[in-house]
Design a protein that fits this description.
CATH topology of one domain in chain B: Rossmann fold
Largest sheet of chain B: 6 strands, parallel
Largest sheet of chain A: 2 strands, antiparallel
Structural class of chain B: alpha/beta
CATH class of one domain in chain B: Alpha Beta
Shape of chain A: globular
Oligomer: heterodimer
Radius of gyration of chain B: 23 Å
Distance between the termini of chain B: 34 Å
Largest interface: A-B, 17 and 16 residues
Strand order of the largest sheet of chain B: 3-2-1-4-5-6
CATH superfamily of one domain in chain B: NAD(P)-binding Rossmann-like Domain
Number of strands of chain A: 2
Strand order of the largest sheet of chain A: 1-2
Order of helices and strands of chain A: HHHHHHHHHHHHHHHHHEEHHHH
Helix content of chain B: 25-40%
Number of strands of chain B: 22
Radius of gyration of chain A: 22 Å
Shape of chain B: globular
Number of helices of chain B: 18
Strand content of chain A: under 5%
Chain lengths: 482, 463
């Protein structure tokens, strides 16, 4: 492996991270809530280390699959370890592990927290926590790619490892332009939501935090009661709709921008995504109306918000859905596994994988009746290569295996099965709150330190789609090559 | 500049690679997902899995906004059709690869009727290069510049004991000549006066044609005196055919050995003056029977690189003065310098050089890719609007990988030094490592206008 280039890119990533801390630094100077020192130290340390690594001269330029994987997996670990420093130094969390959990939860756009009283946090820390959602959603490396000039060739390896979904595709000839288009789209959506929330009566600070939380499909809030703290239906709807928008493949917005509306509407993943949301909203809405809610429109409003929030793996809540009927909770748990679309900021297994799995099942059924039938599996009219299909099989299998084993491991803590299952589903799927012990009104603080480390790992596994992190655990493949 | 390449074969890939180096927006279309995957992993281009002949696909890509389409699929008919469609759909320029000799005869008609701007035939281009090499008396010939006034040659200094172990500044008889590059064990080095030459280095020398000729006589006096009269070609592929035809026209006696009987039959019908031998060209008895040792040159032009290289080596062993081999894979480039053959020509490089020359167009006169594709020699006519006009070479601060080999002014060839001044309408021949191509472009290409650069230029003027 070419260590020189790996270190160089890692240095650039750290520099990018330190730049993203600057707004929080400014806030902390302005608000004087005792978090200034934490940001200042971290920025200096991160920037210095980043500069040393990035300015180092190195010979090779090529980034192959190995280097790409190493950069992405180590890069994410590094930004989390350094990103946790302000929280720990400012005393916002009790231990460094808590801080790491919190910031991993931020970068992976999970939104699970270990801080019971969010309202007591300094504003700088709140802002930093939320901005990690924003960077983590589209990918800190994709952002770095847009800036780094010389990463052309190997860039695709990094892009592939960081962008969610089974098929990574460029939308412009150069990886740099692709990254710019994606971030441009992202920025546009972000600005739209900030403006709309501001109109709805939020302060600038709150609009920014809630926007980062929803477009990054993260879920960090400024209030203990999440979005539930706001009674305005307008705010619920704006956040709800933007969450759903952020769960859509971003390249679809590019097609829209290019005027290819027909192509966009025919996207099979988008259709299935919307159909699942519609079905879930309707069934939960009816279920709620017939049981706990007396007001029909309120039942559908909360149902829409919660389905949007869980499906896109954001994790905001407007109601304590832990108290909802089991049928509704069951649907939400199912949505946790499905997640958003490939190429979006959402987590989970991704709608496209579910779609392809369904198609594969359909083909298997056909083969029972016609054993010699030849039927290629198509997506959007294109035949899927066998490698992609094999990748989806192994991803789905691995996801379930990790889920099952992790659930058993978590029950060692003594929690009930639903809590354990939903904790794992909520971290692996980058959602945030789960059910029971980790329901929307409580936090992950009840778990022990070691379990928090484990959950942090699960979040990273989920965000980087399993194999990137799994590869890190296979040191045989890391040998230096001459 | 936006380019579409249809067909990611050897040519398509190399072309895409060179174009990415040139900072062009490249889109590659192919129907093979495996090929596209590897392209995607190696090059920063947009890959599209589709059939390039599908109008829907071309329209979806917005072909009307592209400046160039290169059709390099393995079928001539497909290439012609793709170019024609693209042209009708609004693509600015199209280039097609056409290999079938039958079509070559009606090229002009095809070009005008089908709307193809440039037709490239790799086999014909390679045959032309080999012919040039054989007919001119150079050890090896890389390029003709400034209308033949300047030449670049490269040769291995293995047999030149007076060269090995010396520093370049101490070499004698190099007046008016410049060593622009050294190929050492497969990598290209840009030397300065203190670089020491090692045995087995291949040096690239540029200079006035007359001076090069003098050097050449010193280097290989025995070869240059002998005119090429008898040539043996191994393999009746398209290259073999074109070359045999050309050489026969130049009154050289050509023996062509081909394994396939039907092919021999066919060739014997079209190549009346060429002796066609049906037999296995790797059979030494057959070659001896055809008196290989009396040949002046041997050309390995079969479809197999290994066969070509080994048989060229064998010919050399048997005393043939010039042995040339055609190779198509890049795998062997690194060891070819060490082999005792006179030239190894890669049709892909030759083709890419031609296409690059075409797309740079205008002020770029000639382009030549060196073996291995690591370096490039470009001839440029300096436009008076260039910012570098009137500056000395020292002031330019060119990176080490870029060397201005000669300046041709009013027909006079000079080897520049740091004090030389660049003037408008000078022709310069520049050697550059491929890595430095974008920098080279910055230096010698007229910068695009636009509000910002306008403002910047004004601001500079005010100071």
């Amino acid at each position: 492996m070419n260590y020189g280039i790996v270190l160089k890119v890692l240095g650039s990533i750290l520099m990018v991270e330190s730049i993203f801390m600057l707004p929080s630094l400014v806030i902390s100077i302005y608000t004087k809530q005792g978090d200034l020192y934490g940001f200042l130290t971290t920025i200096v340390v991160t920037l210095a280390l980043g500069l040393i690594l990035a300015l180092k001269k190195n010979k090779g330029k090529s980034i192959n699959a190995k280097e790409g994987l190493a950069i992405v997996s180590i890069g994410w670990l590094l930004v989390s370890l350094f990103g946790a420093l302000p929280l720990y130094i400012s005393g916002s969390t009790r231990t460094y592990i808590d801080a790491v959990f919190e910031i991993v939860s931020g970068f992976t756009t999970t939104g699970a927290t270990v801080i019971p009283n969010v309202e007591g946090l300094p504003m700088g820390i709140l802002f930093w926590r939320s901005i990690t959602h924003w960077i983590g959603g589209m990918g800190i490396l994709v952002f770095t790619l847009a800036l780094l000039p010389a990463l052309g060739i190997g860039g695709f390896q990094i892009f592939k490892a960081e962008s969610p979904g089974p098929i990574a595709g460029k939308i412009a000839p150069r990886i740099k332009d692709t990254a710019k288009i994606l971030y441009g789209t992202y920025l546009t959506i972000t600005i739209m939501q900030v403006v709309l929330l501001k109109i709805g009566g939020m302060s600038i600070f709150e609009s920014l935090v809630y926007t980062f939380g929803s477009v990054g499909t993260g879920g960090f809030a400024t209030k203990n009661a999440s979005v539930g703290a706001y009674t305005s239906t307008y705010i619920h709807m704006v956040i709800g709709i933007f969450m759903v928008l952020s769960g859509v493949n971003f390249s679809i917005y590019y097609s829209l921008f290019k005027g290819r509306i027909k192509e966009m509407l025919q996207d099979e993943e988008l259709r299935l995504y919307l159909i699942i949301i519609l079905l879930a909203v309707v069934s939960i809405g009816i279920n709620l109306y017939r049981t706990t809610y007396s007001n029909g429109s309120l039942a559908f409003r909360d149902s829409f918000f919660q389905v949007g929030s869980i499906m896109t793996t954001t994790g905001y809540s407007t109601a304590n859905f832990d108290l909802w009927p089991t049928f509704s909770k069951g649907i939400l748990l199912l949505l946790m596994f499905i997640g958003g679309s490939a190429g979006s900021t959402a987590g989970g297994m991704k709608v496209v994988r579910i779609l392809i799995t369904l198609k594969l099942i359909k083909r298997e059924v056909l083969k029972i009746f016609h054993p010699r039938a030849m039927r290629p599996v198509k997506l959007n009219g294109r035949i899927l290569p066998n490698e992609t299909i094999a990748g989806i099989y192994s991803f789905t299998g691995l996801y379930i295996i990790i889920f099952a084993i992790s659930t058993i491991l978590v029950t060692v803590e003594g929690v009930d099965l639903v809590s354990a299952m939903s904790s794992v589903a909520a971290t692996l799927g980058n959602i945030g709150p789960g059910l029971g012990f980790v329901g929307p009104t409580s936090t992950f603080n009840g778990y022990s330190q070691i379990t928090k480390v484990f959950f942090s790992l699960l979040m990273l596994l989920g965000r980087l789609e399993l194999f990137t992190i799994i590869a890190l655990l296979a040191p045989k493949n890391w040998r230096r090559e001459v | 500049m936006k380019v579409i390449i249809v067909g990611a074969g050897k040519l398509g890939y190399k072309l895409a690679e060179s174009m990415v180096m040139e900072n062009l927006d490249v889109t590659v279309i192919d129907i093979n997902p495996k090929v596209l995957n590897s392209v995607n992993e190696q090059l920063d281009v947009l890959t599209v899995l589709a059939n390039g002949i599908d109008i829907g696909v071309l329209k979806e890509l917005g072909i009307g906004h592209y400046n160039l389409l290169v059709a390099s699929t393995d079928r001539d008919e497909t290439n012609t059709l793709i170019c024609s469609l693209a042209k009708k759909l609004g693509c600015e320029k199209t280039i097609a690869r056409i290999r079938n000799p039958e079509y070559m005869k009606q090229l002009d008609f095809i070009k005008t009727e089908m709307g193809i701007d440039y037709i490239i035939n790799p086999d014909l281009a390679t045959a032309q290069s080999i012919e040039k090499y054989l007919l001119k008396n150079y050890n090896f010939y890389s390029g003709d510049f400034a209308g033949g006034k300047v030449q670049m040659v490269d040769f291995n200094i293995e047999h030149m004991e007076e060269f090995a172990g010396k520093k370049i500044k101490d070499l004698k008889g190099f007046k008016g000549l410049l060593i622009t590059a050294i190929s050492r064990e497969g990598t290209i080095i840009v030397p300065n006066g203190f670089t020491e030459l090692l045995a087995n280095d291949t040096i690239y020398v540029i200079g006035k044609t007359t001076d090069i000729e003098k050097l050449n006589q010193r280097v290989s006096p025995d070869i240059t005196k002998k005119e090429i009269e008898r040539v043996m070609i191994l393999g009746g592929s398209n290259i073999g055919y074109y070359l045999a035809e050309k050489l026969a026209k130049a009154n050289i006696s050509v023996t062509l050995v081909e394994k396939d009987k039907a092919k021999c039959q066919e060739l014997s019908e079209v190549l009346g003056d060429v002796l066609i031998i049906h037999g296995d060209g790797t059979d030494i008895h057959l070659l001896e029977e055809e008196r290989i040792s009396s040949m002046d040159a041997f050309i390995g032009a079969t479809g197999f690189d290994e066969e070509n290289l080994l048989m060229a080596l064998m010919a050399k062993q048997l005393g043939v003065p010039k042995a040339v081999s055609k190779i198509s894979r890049e795998n062997y480039t690194k060891i070819i310098d060490r082999l005792d053959i006179d030239a190894a020509l890669n049709p892909i490089y030759i083709t890419v050089s031609h296409i690059l020359k075409f797309i740079r167009g205008g002020k770029i006169v000639a382009v030549s890719l060196l073996i291995g594709g690591d370096g490039e020699v470009t001839e440029i006519i300096l436009d008076k609007s260039l910012p570098i006009i009137g500056k000395t070479l020292e002031e330019l601060k060119l990176p080490q990988g870029i060397i201005i080999g000669v300046i041709v002014r009013d027909g006079k060839v000079t080897i520049p030094n740091g004090k030389s001044v660049l003037q408008a309408n000078d022709r310069i021949v520049v050697f550059s490592l491929t890595d430095h191509m974008p920098t080279l472009k910055q230096f010698f290409k007229y910068q695009k206008g636009g509000v910002l650069s306008e403002l910047w230029n004004r601001a500079k003027g005010l100071r």
